[in-house]
Amino acid sequence: MTGPRSDHDGRADVEELAIRQAELVAALVAGGASPAGFDPARLAATRRALLRKRAGEAAKAWPLLAAAHGAAWPAVFAEHCAGRPPAGPLRDGWDVARALRAGGRLPEAAVTELAEREAALHYDGTSAPTPRRWRRLRRRFFGLRRA
Amino acid sequence: MRRVTVPSAGAVPELAGVGVGWRPEISGWVADRPGLRFGEVIAESIAPAVPPRGVVELRERGVEVVPHGIRLSLGGTDPLDPGKVTHLAACAAALGSPVVSEHVAFCGAGGLTAGHLLPLPRTRAALDVLAANVRRLQAELDVPVALEPIASFLDWPEDEFTEADFLTELLERTGALLLLDVANVYANAVNRGRDPRTALDRMPLSRIAYVHIAGGAEHPDDPGIYHDTHADPVPEPVFALLGELVDRIGGAPPVMLERDGRYPPAEVLSAELDRIAETAGLATPAR
């Protein structure tokens, strides 16, 4: 608890709500500890449902990667993305594709899809992908100055 | 197109009849579907300056289009994103929408996004946060906002209100309307071993702007839990609950189908929409 408060202390209640919301989100998508008082089975089911939803969205951004796995796609996605916060369908799918490639498990049908993405966009694995064309231009105009 | 006279719930007079959530994957079917009176578009999926061709064509047909926000996180304690509020208002202006809608939910906290709508604790603090954010949204809108209670099978230990009392209080405080999803009412009741009809009775039905209906199913990994997937057919008991709703409000509300994945062939979607119209007591359009 955050110091003394009464039942009518709306501000302290909202601060407590912020902490509880953050705990719940962290538990659901970032491998955080289960917050007190929630049904563990329902938390686990919610975690799985969120992963299935993300897998479905990633499949729209990475149709060949998802199709190559067929019905196993949600499980393949969950294997890599469980406990990792959503980064959006493009990056989520990209992370899965790279992890599969690193493990020698990227299906043949998805190799071109990944290669085309990597040719068009620069993705550092932690922030939003940027068009490689912009990077070349930026380097041309600002590169020397930075050096 | 044959025009049919239908009663409406009246909260948003421009909305009536049967509608559908427009999605790019079913744009062709929506374009060919006769008798649509209104639809929805996911606000975050469009640029108001250049709405998708299919949405523009709906407007040209005289079909009302409601921007449906899914990422505002109205119940979140993180500050409301002013850009998202402006975007939703711009969508409504661009589409000439009679109403916009969002959810009674939060989408993330502490710098993390959940990727989906999460349930709120039904507490006074959550009501304060929600009401303040809804008022901020209303201040930027020229049209009413309708709020949709979500489907969830997760309960907060803090809950002080029933879902219906929480909603009633929220709508009273803000003057917002209700977007009632009968599939969500069904899911929330059956996942707690309760009767959906009782849950319906307690909802502030007089505040309905329009109604959602969608499909769902159990998942093999979670036996005993009904998931509101929007990617399965509308099950019989959800149709039955729509019928119960029509009985309670004494007329057909504007009602629309939400389908977000595993799209079936056009004729299956058409049959489902016909069944919704028939259940709601709305005339089935000429085919």
Walk me through the structure.
The complex is a heterodimer of chains A (147) and B (287). Chain A is an all-alpha fold. Chain A folds into 2 domains: 1-38, no CATH class; 50-146, no CATH class. Chain A is 68% helix and 3% strand. Chain A contains 7 helices and 2 strands; from the N terminus they run H-H-H-H-H-H-E-E-H. Chain A has a two-stranded antiparallel sheet with strand order 1-2. With 287 residues, chain B is α/β, with parallel strands linked by helices. Chain B has one domain (18-280): TIM Barrel, CATH 3.20.20. Chain B has 9 helices and 12 strands. In chain B, the strands form 3 sheets. An 8-stranded parallel β-sheet of chain B has the order 3-2-1-12-9-8-7-4. A two-stranded antiparallel ribbon of chain B has the order 5-6. In chain B, helix 8 (236-249) runs parallel beside helix 9 (266-280). The radius of gyration of chain B is 18 Å and the shape is globular. In chain B, 51% of the residues are buried. Chain B: Pfam families: MbnB_TglH_ChrH (PF05114).
Give the strand order, joined by hyphens, for the main sheet of chain A: 1-2
Query: Any idea what the shape of chain B is?
Result: globular
Unreliable residue runs of chain A: 1-6
Largest sheet, strands/sense/barrel of chain B: 8 strands, parallel
Gross morphology of chain A is: flat
* Count of spatially separate domains of chain A: 2
Number of strands of chain B: 12
Order of strands across the main sheet of chain B: 3-2-1-12-9-8-7-4
Topology of chain A as a string of helices (H) and strands (E): HHHHHHEEH
Q: Largest interface, and how many residues on either side?
A: A-B, 33 and 34 residues
Number of strands of chain A: 2
DSSP strand content of chain B? 15-25%
| Terminal Cα span of chain B | 9 Å
Question: Quick check: average pLDDT of chain A?
Answer: 90
Number of helices of chain A: 7
InterPro entries (chain B): MbnB/TglH/ChrH, Xyl_isomerase-like_sf
Organism (chain A): Pseudonocardia thermophila
Domain SCO6045-like C-terminal (chain A): 18-102
Pfam family, one (chain A): SCO6045_C
